[in-house]
Each structure stands twice: as C-alpha cells, then as structure tokens.
Amino acid sequence: MSERLYELVTDLHAALDTAADADSCVDSVVNLLTDNSELIRSDNDMEILCEDVLRHSCVDSISDDALAELLCIWRGLHLTESAEPSQLERGFVVLSLAYYLGHVYGANVFRKIGQYMDSLLIPVVSNCSRHRVHIPAVRLLYEVCLLQELSLSELDEFSMEMIAVLLDSVEKTACSDQLEEYNFSILKLLLALNDQYMKKNHAREVIENRIIACLATRLYMGKSLGANVIFMFNRADNPRVQRLIIRFFMRMLKSDPTSGFFYTNDLKVMLDVILREARSVADENEELQQGYLNVLPPLLHNPQIKGYKAADVSVLLSDLRRVGSSGGADSPRLGSPIRSETGASSPMTGVMGTSGVRPSTRRVAERVFLECRDVLLVQD
C-alpha cells in the first residue's frame, strides 16, 4: 500500500469514527473516496479501501440490505451520458462499494441492488463505457443476472444498442493486459445474458436472443470475443462460468448465422478442452460433464474441423457408454484399455469401476454417439 493510500485509510477511519448515523456514515465514505479518487489506480487499491471500510464498526452495524439501499439511492448520484466527470467518479466509488459489499455479505445484497437494475446499472453500462464507472456496473449486472432469472420485461431493457456497446468494449480491451479482468467481466456478463435468453426460450421462443442476433451482424468484427471466450474456457476453474460458456457454444454452433463465428484453431482448442475436461470432472460435477458432451454434436458437425480428433472422441464416448455396463460382445473387459485409431489407450478404462459413470451420463454419451456416428471413426 502506498503512503498516500495509507493516509486515505487513516482519514476514512477518522471520518467513520465521528459519523452519527447510517446516512452520515455512507456520505462520509463516498465523499472522501470521491475527493481522493485519483489515488485509486487499480482494482487492488479499491479492494483494499472497500474491505477496510466494510470492516469498520460503524459500517458493520448497518444491515446489509439497508447499506445496499443507501448506496443505490445515494442522493448525490446522478449518472447519465452527459454527467460531469466528478459525478462519474462518484458513481465509480458508489458502485465499487456496492460490488464489494455483495462479496462480503452475499446474495441478499445483489438481490437488493438488482431492484435498481433498470434505473442505475443498465444506464451506466449503456452510456458510460468510456469511464471506469463502467467496470463495477458491468460486474454488478453480471452478479444480478447470475443470481436470478429475469422477467421478459427486464430482459427487454437490454437493448441491441447496449449489447453493441458491450461487444465494442470487448474488442477495445482485448489486447490490453491491464484491462484483462475488465474484458473478462464484460464477457461473463454477455455469457450470463445469453443464458437468460436461453432459459426464457427453453420450451419455445418468446424473446429474441439479442446476444446472438447482434453477433450475427458482426461476424468479422467480433473475433477477439471468440478468442477470449475460448481462452477463458481453456483456463476457467469456476464450474458456473464453464456452464455459461458451454451454453454459449451450444447456441452459437447450432445457429446458422453464427455457426462459422469461431476460427478453425479456436474450434480445435474447444474440442481439446472438452476431451480433457469431460474426463477430469467425471462424477464430481455430473451436470458439467454432460454439458461438455452435449457440445460435441454441433461442434463435430462443423465443417471447419471435420475429422479432427475423431478417434479420441470415439474413445471418450466408448468409455462413458460402456464402463459399468453388464457386459456383452461389445463391452471391453474391465482393465483392458480401449485404443483409439492412433493407438492411444483410454485413461478411463481400467480405472473406473461400475459406479464410475452415472447412468444419466451414459445415456447422454449414447445419444451423443448416435448423433455423431457419421463423423466419428467408430467400429461398433
């Protein structure tokens, strides 16, 4: 922590020690941080300040709901496209405090903040992409979308213009190491919104998926988005984010206008990750494992990667279909490794017992095998 940042923490403590009530407590923090916002140069700086504020007894004595509401309706916050820079800095402080408050106190805070989605978060995300207030607004909106299923009227607030702003922001921040986390925050918001549309259209289409519709109009303008989502997919260790990415892949690959969105090399990496992760998750996360399998049909039928790793996919599906079966002419003896046509032995066979693959996963593997049989190098 820099000396000046340490001095700001000391000043915050002094202001909070003399705060008379919840209102004056919030006012003191917001005003002091806004007046010294030039000292807040990174996410780490803001995290240090927010954690210190939230640990203070004056703040800790306020209920999480009340504190979230005080922040969202704070009387000094007016964020519009034409807002003064000082107001935008104030917004950055308020929304950053709200974001870290949610991570300290949990889902109830994000639910409360979600009540101000259309009046506070969406306008900032739509109109303030050139200012850093955009960063906590994007992160808060992602948390809200992750927490609850939005109504049709709420989803309708996400305009094509707003989606375009987010997609443009992805492209503008794609090559900056300093903005990588911000870039990933935008990507996660887009993934969560796609998931919201997919949930609403599960039985029948009741609302246009504006993420897919917008991407379909800019197939040659959004390549950084595709590459960065693949990058996230390859290194993500959060099952919830992986599920969002999988559902995005499913929707993109199944839709004719966007089936050619990804570069050939990106599609190959996608398949490599699926082959790796579908084995490693095993029954630790059955839903995620089945999600990996469900991407295979639209992916393998994509002409860009025709035949790529087909033998390895065959081995994977054979393992999942046959391990734990009751035997038969086409059931390998447990302990006898299945080999792909390249000679690679299966790492699963001989390791999993009869309980290694759950019945529902075996059924998914069987269905996927049948759907992909025409493109796999399989002898059944």
Biggest sheet record: none
The helix/strand class is mainly alpha
Give average pLDDT, whole number: 86
Distance between the ends: 63 Å
What is the tally of beta strands? Answer: 0
Strand content: under 5%
Q: Mind explaining what this structure looks like?
A:
Pfam families: SPIN90_LRD. It comes from Chytriomyces confervae. The protein is mostly helical. The chain has a domain at 263-380. The protein has 19 helices and no strands. It has helices spanning 3-17, 22-35, 43-55, 57-60, 64-72, 85-105, 107-114, 117-127, 134-147, 152-155, 160-173, 180-200, 210-216, 223-235, 239-254, 264-281, 286-300, 310-322, 359-372. The longest helix has 21 residues, at 85-105. It is elongated, with a radius of gyration of 25 Å. Residues 325-345 and 347-355 have low confidence and may be disordered.
